[in-house]
Every structure is written in structure tokens, then in C-alpha cells.
Amino acid sequence: LAKTTQPISMDSYEGQEVNITCSHNNIATNDYITWYQQFPSQGPRFIIQGYKTKVTNEVASLFIPADRKSSTLSLPRVSLSDTAVYYCLVGDMEYGNKLVFGAGTILRVKS
Amino acid sequence: DVKVTQSSRYLVKRTGEKVFLECVQDMDHENMFWYRQDPGLGLRLIYFSYDVKMKEKGDIPEGYSVSREKKERFSLILESASTNQTSMYLCASHPPGGWTEAFFGQGTRLTVV
Q1: Which residues in A lie closer than 8 A to residue B97 (C-beta atoms)?
Q2: What is the pLDDT of residues A1-28, one digit of tens each?
Q3: A41: how many CB neighbours lie within 10 A of its CB?
């Protein structure tokens, strides 16, 4: 699985847009990019997934440049409830492959 | 809704006890995973299974074993619990093929005294 690098933590204020960038220089052709969110004392929750260009859902947008060596999770107008740990994962879940999480990015949203 | 259910939310066990953590999923997923999570260390993979009776070691398998006798159930076993196994344990399931989302249980906070 491709190794990912994310910032350890980020601070923001309510109403701001937050962008968290993940580096994955050795991403493989078959790899997807997936982001999870985890609140304290809960299991991670899927946010968004993409392969290339831009993906948007009701929660976030995911921007992936043409070389796919990085990706950016964008959270529009964050609120206090967006305070969580955000994980970037890169890989393909074919039979027998692991699902490996890194340390993630701690996002703290302040009022 | 997909459900991944862990048998206990909180558990307190004594050093040396054999501990069973149970995880059941209802979506017929082939892949199941056990993680532990400790402050500052993120989620670390203990074991995973991609089919019934199949298991693979993750990054930190020492002191643990697993059992997958049925597709929907994946058990984590602490053969002889120690205080350094006090942690939050998370189970997940995931269908194979390309990449889709993984589903996590609510976690079991295990304290070994």
C-alpha cells in the first residue's frame, strides 16, 4: 500500500473552509484515495473516495491533481462538530489486501 | 444500514485472563479487521481476515490471536491479558474488489488490571 503523509494537526474557526492535504508519492495505478473521519470514542467513518480529478458529496470535496501524488480534502464552512481526526488512505481493496491507517490529522475547530 | 457490532463497549479484565472480543457484521463482507487505538498512535492493525478460516497478521499481532469460523464473525483473542493491552479495540469489515468504504464497530474499551 502507498505510504501517506498528512499534517499532524490543524486549527480552524467556525465558518471557514478547511483543506487537508495528503501526500502519496508512490501511488499505484489501481489505487483509490479514501478519507475517513473519526470522532472521540467512535470508529472511523467513511467521508469520500476518489480516483482522479474532483469528487464532491454532501459532506466534502476531494481534489486530486493529474499526477495523483497528492490529494486535498476540502470541508466547506466547518462547525465545532467537525472537530475530529481525518485519515487519508491510499490503496486498492482487492482480495487479501490490508486496510492500513496512518496517524491522521487532528482538526480542531474553534468558535 | 450496514452494521458491525462489537460484543462489549467496555470491558475490565485481570492480568493473565484469556479475553475474547467478538465482532459480527451483517453485510456478507469477506474482509474483516481488528485494530487497537492508543493516544498519539492512530489505528494499528492487529490481524485481518479475507475469508472464513483465513487470517493474516497485521502490524502488531504479538499477544493476540484471531478466529473466523463463520463469515460474519471475527473474534480477537488475548491469550493472557497484560496491562499493556489496555486499549480501544476496533473491528471493521469491508467488501473486496476495487475500493469501497469500510464499516467500523463502535469499539471496545478494554482495561486490564
Answers
A1: 93-95
A2: 668 899 999 999 999 999 999 999 988 8
A3: 10
Best A24, A100, A105, A106 member to test B by mutation, with max B CBs in 10 Å, is: A100
Say whether A44 and B43 touch across the interface (CB within 8 A): yes
Structure confidence by residue, pLDDT tens digits, B52-109: 988 999 999 999 999 999 999 999 999 999 999 999 999 999 887 666 788 999 999 9
Cα separation values, A111 from A4, A82, A104, Å: 30, 12, 23
How far are the Cα atoms of A77, B5, B16, B34, B66 from residue B37, in angstroms, in the given order?
29, 17, 21, 10, 17
Q: What is the DSSP string of A56-80?
A: E-SS-EEEE-TT-SEEEEEESS--G
